[in-house]
Amino acid sequence: RPQPTSAEKIAAAEIEIEMVSDMFTRLTQSCAKKCIQNDYRESDLNKAESVCLDRCVSKFFEVNLKVSEKMQGEAGRR
Amino acid sequence: ISGLPRLRLPSRNWMIFLSIVGAWTAAVTYDRLEKKRMRQKWCRLVEGLAKEPLPSNMMDRRVTIVLGGPPADGVMTAREHFHEYVKPVLVSAGLDWDVVEGRREGDIRAGLAERVRKRRKMAGEAGTQGEEELQEDTEVLLDDLRNRMGTREWDGIAGDVVIGRHAWKEYVRGLHEGWLGPVDDPKPAKVEEVPASGDEASPTSDTSSSETPDSDTTSAEPNKEEEKPEEKSKEQPKRKQPDPFISPVEYPSAVLSPSCPPILGPSTPVSFPHLLGFFNFPIRIYRFLNKRHLADDIGRQVAAAALGVYRPYETTTSEFTSDPASEFYPPPTSTLPLDISSEDGDGTGNPSTQRRLGIDGEQKAILEHEEAEWHKSARKRDEDEPGKERVWIDDMVLDPRIAARMQRFVLSVEDEQRAKQIAEALSRERWQKVW
């Protein structure tokens, strides 16, 4: 099997970096919108927000996983 | 002729109908409104906790919920009870939680004992088997990652919330089994008899049905389990519950684990009234119309757990008033509605052990009134195995070393006062809305 050339490897790495940073951005935006209220008086996260953020991130990844499993299943069937 | 038309009351039959329907609706509505108000009261009491800052490199406080399906019923009733009464206060206090669930009798005991043994292993007590799989375990990996990232565990107490008498009995038994029993399975030969079902885990693997938000299995391949639940259910229709590693008779001769902490997670019992049966309908109707008292009671227990003030369990209930530390917690009448019996109640005795094992303690009497409500099928002993241990109907055996370490959450006097003030403020708001 032909090995991927270094150019292809670089391209693959670039795509992966883009995907990861895109997911990170979406995750932070979505969870910040849901968990952190507009009016705050201090810079530290309080406990309610911490717990909410933990759960939001966990749910986001689970949803991601389930959806990608389904899609792979669909792609595998075709 | 002019003016108001001649007003008439409805006929006698309609009057009867409307008054019955009206009375029932009024009773239900009043009860639900009051229940909501009770819930709001306790939620507001603990709100302040959620607003405290938490450094981003510290994990949040995780309370362990011990939840089990009551005798002759499934786990969904317990879950709904939890969602309705316990969860709002936990959410309002900004706490995270972790559930030890049990579907059948003994599941909670097995799950809890497994957790304790795992904690002992991580603290360094070497078991003779399973060293390698411990290193591959998700929790160990997570801990390593957290150490590297500099994330600290919550540095205060965590706490346990135990829902129902059945879960309470299993909780106490599980604690004893975990801390007094051996770290390894004393009878590993049993596992080889289990037919090869693709479950390659060693006897210390988790076969009880405990669920947590992050899957808390101790088997070496947790991902496999998640992806192929159907295969497992075909090959292994009933998950085997590991037998207790130590029996209550062996408690006095057992060696307490050296890594046992001086305080065993302060616990709070939560009442779980559950009545089945056709002839119990009048009582159930009464309870249906009086859920506000239950909400108040449970709210108080969970708020006490959230606020974190605790005291040791009494060794004998008669010594309560002469306790030297009684200035630190309020008198019995106002805050301990669950301590009903002043004498040690045995309830249903185990016919096979005539002499009493263990010491007397406050833990035995907790939520005892619930035992009378259980369905009679729970009290029937299996004819095939008369000597088999039944956690629910056997007497609770307390080892003094474990019982002395158990602590209980109580609500302090100031918090009671604040709760009363919040209740008054809420009723003022109600009347203002009406005006």
From TrEMBL, chain A:
This protein's record includes keyword Coiled coil: no
Domain-level remarks: The twin CX3C motif contains 4 conserved Cys residues that form 2 disulfide bonds in the mitochondrial intermembrane space.
Gene Ontology CC annotations of this record: mitochondrial inner membrane
Domain Tim10-like residue range list: 10-72
InterPro entries found in the cross-reference section: Tim10-like (IPR004217), Tim10-like_dom_sf (IPR035427)
GO terms under biological process: protein insertion into mitochondrial inner membrane; protein transport
Main location: mitochondrion
Assembly description: Heterohexamer; composed of 3 copies of TIM9 and 3 copies of TIM10, named soluble 70 kDa complex. Associates directly with the TIM22 complex, whose core is composed of TIM22 and TIM54. Interacts with the transmembrane regions of multi-pass transmembrane proteins in transit.
PANTHER family, alphabetized: MITOCHONDRIAL IMPORT INNER MEMBRANE TRANSLOCASE SUBUNIT TIM10
Domain of life (superkingdom): Eukaryota
Topological type in the membrane: Peripheral membrane protein
Pfam family, one: zf-Tim10_DDP
Claim: Plastid is one of the keywords in the record: no
Family statement: Belongs to the small Tim family.
Location of this chain's protein in the cell: Mitochondrion inner membrane
Purpose of the protein: Mitochondrial intermembrane chaperone that participates in the import and insertion of some multi-pass transmembrane proteins into the mitochondrial inner membrane. Also required for the transfer of beta-barrel precursors from the TOM complex to the sorting and assembly machinery (SAM complex) of the outer membrane. Acts as a chaperone-like protein that protects the hydrophobic precursors from aggregation and guide them through the mitochondrial intermembrane space. Mitochondrial intermembrane chaperone that participates in the import and insertion of multi-pass transmembrane proteins into the mitochondrial inner membrane. Also required for the transfer of beta-barrel precursors from the TOM complex to the sorting and assembly machinery (SAM complex) of the outer membrane. Acts as a chaperone-like protein that protects the hydrophobic precursors from aggregation and guide them through the mitochondrial intermembrane space.
GO MF, one example: metal ion binding
Name the UniProt record assigns to this protein: Mitochondrial import inner membrane translocase subunit
Keywords in alphabetical order: Chaperone, Disulfide bond, Membrane, Metal-binding, Mitochondrion, Mitochondrion inner membrane, Protein transport, Translocation, Transport, Zinc
Transmembrane segment boundaries: none
TrEMBL record, chain B:
Entry keywords, A to Z: Membrane, Mitochondrion, Mitochondrion inner membrane, Protein transport, Translocation, Transmembrane, Transmembrane helix, Transport
Bilayer-crossing regions: 14-33
InterPro entries xrefs: Mt_import_IM_translocase_Tim54
Family matches, as Pfam families: Tim54
GO CC entries: mitochondrial inner membrane
UniProt subcellular location: Mitochondrion inner membrane
Basic and acidic residues biased stretches: 184-193, 222-242
Membrane topology label: Single-pass membrane protein
Location (main, coarse): mitochondrion
Biased composition (Low complexity): 199-221
Domain of life: Eukaryota
UniProt keyword Mitochondrion, yes or no: yes
Region (Disordered) residue spans: 178-250, 317-356
GO biological process terms on file: protein transport
Family membership: Belongs to the TIM54 family.
Name listed for the protein in its UniProt record: Mitochondrial import inner membrane translocase subunit TIM54
Classification of source organism: Eukaryota, Fungi, Dikarya, Ascomycota, Pezizomycotina
